[in-house]
Structures are given as C-alpha cells and as structure tokens.
Amino acid sequence: MTTTRTRRTARAAGAGSGLLAGAAGVLAGEGLASVLGVTGPVVAVGNRVVDLTPRPVKEWAIETFGSADKLVLLSGVLVVLAVALAALGVVGVRHRAAALTGLTVLIALAAAAMLLDPAQGAGSWEVVACVAVMLGVGLGGLAWMLSSLQAPARDTGPRRRSVLAAASGVAAVGAVGAAARTVGDRSAGPQSLDLPQPATSADPVPSGVSFDVDGLTPHVTPTEDFYRVDTALQVPQVDARDHVLRITGMVDRPLELTVGDLLERDLVERRITMTCVSNPVGGDLLGTATWIGIPTRELLAGAGVQDGADAVRSVSTDGFTAGTPLGVLTDDRGALVALGMNGGPLPAEHGYPVRMVTPGLYGYVSATKWLTELEVTRFEDFTAYWTDRGYAAKAPIKLSSRIDVPGSFAQLDAGDVTVAGVAWAQTVGVERVEVRVDEGEWHDAELGVEDSDQTWRAWRWVWPAEPGNHRLEVRATDRAGKVQTSRREPIAPDGSTGWHSTTVTVS
C-alpha cells in the first residue's frame, strides 16, 4: 500500500512538474513576444488551428459562441497543452529523457506556428529569441524539477527543499513572463488619437427613427455592444505613430500614408449599418455606428487607378486579406477608410487605427480591420482569405428582417402585444415590413422614419393576441420592390436567407 501511495504521489508530483515547467516556458515566451511585438506561441498555435479548421466547423463556432468563439478556441488550446504537459511530467518521473524530448517537440510545433504566422516574417530573429527562451526555461525547469524528484528517497528533507526550490524558481520565471505579457499589452495599446472634428458631419438622427419599445434594438449601436467577428485570436496592438497605409498595384502613383497624413485630410462622418456574413436568420451579428474617415474613392483617385482594374485587395496587420469590387469603393455609396467610431478613435478590437467601412457588402469582402494596404488589382489575379475557403468573391448584403420582441418562448398575456424589430437593405432601403401569425394573412407593420438607405429601419406592429401557442413571422420589401425570400439558405457561400420567426405562448 505504501508503495502504491508513493507511486501515486510521484506521478502527481511529476504531473505538477510538467505543468509548472511548461507553463513557465510558455509564459516566458509570451512575455518576450509581447515585448518584441510578435505573435506569442499560444495565439500562433490557435491561428494555425483556425486555418486548418473546416469551414462548417467555423460557422458552427461563430453561430454557437458568437464573439466568444476566440476565447473558447484559446481555452481549448490551453486545456490540450495542460494535459500534454502533465502527461510528460508523469512520464518524466521514470524516463526523464523521454519527457524532455516530448517537451522539445511541443516547443518545436509552437515555433513552427510562430514562424508561419502571417503577422511576422519567417525566420525573424524575434521568433528565434522567443523559442530560445521557451527551450531554456521549459526544458531547464523540467530537467531541474525531475532531477529533484529523482533524488534518493532517504534524503527526505533535502529532497523536499530541492523540489520546493525548483518549483519556486520555475514559477518565478513564469511570473516574470506573465508580467512582461501584461506590461507589453498595455504599452502597445491604442494611443490616444486627437481625432479632429469632421469637415462633413452626419445629418442628425431623425426624430421618430425608432420606437419606445422595451427590447427593441437602438438605432445606433453603443460601441461596447457592437459585434466583433474577425480572424484575430489576439487583437493587434498597433501604434498609430508608426502605422502606414500603402496604396499599391495598378495605380499611377503608389502612396504611403501615415495616420497623421490621413488626419490632415477633410474627414467625413456617416452612419452605416454593417453586417457579418456569418449572421444567421434572426441573428445579431450586425450593428449601426457613426463612422469618421476619408472617402475611399478620394484616396484611390489620389493614387490614379489604371484601366483594367476591377478589384481592391485589402491587407490587415495580422495577414487577413479581402477582395472588394473597385466600383463599390468609387461610387456614391460612401465607402470609408475609417479612423473613428461613435465619436472617438476606433477601439483596438474594431480596427484601430485604420479600417475599411463599405456600405452594402458583407464585412468579409469590405471591412478589413487594422488596415495596412489597398492593392488595386483584378479579381482574376488573386484570392482572398475567405474566398480561399469557399465563400463568394462578391457578397452584397441580402434583404433581411428580424423580430426583437417578443423573444422566443415568451409568455404573454392576452390582449394587445407590440411586436417589433429591425429590417435592413443597405444602399437600397426598406419600403415595407409585414408580420403574420400562424401562417395567416400578412399585416403591414409601422415603420420608423428612415435615417438613410445605408442604415437599418425599425418597425412595430400591435397584435391582438389570443390565448394559445403562436408562431410569428416577419418579412421585408425593399425600395426596388424585392420581397424578402422565404427560402432557407445557409451562411456559406454568400449569406443566409429566410424569414425570421419566433414562437410565443399567450394566456
């Protein structure tokens, strides 16, 4: 029994040693990566997982977890890493060389992920330095702790002190790495931009644009509530003082513009409703904000677009790319290279310091964040991040509507019930919204005053509810006379379709 208990204790100590040494190595690597301004090992591995994940799984993750999908993925990576490190520690109690070899393999995989990360060049000395630190701290710490565990059993006091000293030393190194990670993130955070007043302000929000209905989406989405969907597991921390936007490709005059150069131009302010292609029927992956920036067509005109071009390939600091029809960026819809959102500089998670905002197109082809380059080109000459993964190259936002209240499975009292929500048909405008109950006749809803054809439109309908279980459905008609289709289509390749419905109980 004593032998069994001793073995269990040894395995537990080994697992703890593997976890502690591995965590110290990872934290040390993350800390140095933050200080040097490169992607750390955990996020780099997560990025590779994202790239290798099949499209249906990505769509499921976004629909299931929403903006928390990145946290779920990183948590999964950390759990798998913790299990692997603990297992190596257990193996190391009896076979130290095997454990050290296994840890070396894990660090090598992290190194490969870091070197392949599009946000940093392969072979960069910064990555090599991070890997060296992980090897030194991780392998050194594990070897030290396993050696302490394998000390002769009769030397109980010295052995215990040795193990505690090893654990304390490794933990201290990990703590330093964690502190460096935190300090690095704070120092690299968005600088305070002195965003000037726009030369052209947005028109005031019209009176009557929405309704006083509890639960109805506000016309302008607060910044903290604005949806976030992108491929960045770690929000890029960009210093506006060093950031440059390049306009390249099929242009007569390639441009390199600093954030200061952009701020010196005449800024315009526009309210625009943006929509993610991953938004399911009735989903909330859309929002309206007041954006401040420079008309994209002015920047492109300054570069001198050459004949034959039909696309603009945009590039983010994290390596993301999108392809946007050139005509959409140069027509009258008001596409922006934006620096501000809802009265202040762009938040880091929404693209600070510069991003694209393009009315009428889903974000994956038109809303690149942390923008570094606009390359004028032809669609036939490139594919972008999501088109490489089976999505359409051109993706206008589809006419849609949503019921905000009452929510699904609501318990209601019989009598007049206000049904309300929003509808959107960016760049065309919403002309009509209809609601029906239990597949009966359609009833016209009251529309809020239109802000512009680039924003969603609120609606409401008073329903004389009778007892029972009921199904409410909504559909919209746009200014061109197109009626929203009832046909259910999936998110891929160019956006979902179908009527949103909600089921309620009236008593």
Automatic annotation (TrEMBL):
The UniProt entry, under InterPro entries, shows:
Ig_E-set, OxRdtase_Mopterin-bd_dom, OxRdtase_Mopterin-bd_sf
- Biased composition of type Polar residues is found at 498-507
Tell me a Gene Ontology molecular-function term this record carries.
sulfite oxidase activity
Which processes are annotated in GO (biological process)?
A: sulfur compound metabolic process
Q: Where is this region: Disordered?
A: 185-204, 478-507
Pfam families (UniProt xref):
Oxidored_molyb (PF00174)
Q: Which residues form the Oxidoreductase molybdopterin-binding domain?
A: 233-386
> Superkingdom of the source?
Bacteria
- Transmembrane segments in this chain: where? 71-91, 98-116, 122-142, 163-183
Keywords assigned by UniProt, alphabetized: Membrane, Transmembrane, Transmembrane helix
| Compositionally biased intervals (Basic and acidic residues) | 478-491
PANTHER family recorded = SULFITE OXIDASE, MITOCHONDRIAL, SULFITE REDUCTASE
Name of the featured protein: Oxidoreductase, molybdopterin binding
**Which source organism does the UniProt entry give?**
Serinicoccus hydrothermalis
